[in-house]
Amino acid sequence: MPHPQPLPPSFAPTYSHVPLGPLAGPLQLLPVNAGVVAVHTADGAHVGSLKHVGGVWKFKAMGYDAGGGMEPGHGPLTGQHNMQFATLDAAEVSARLLGALLNPP
Question: Model-level pTM?
Answer without folding.
Answer: 0.87
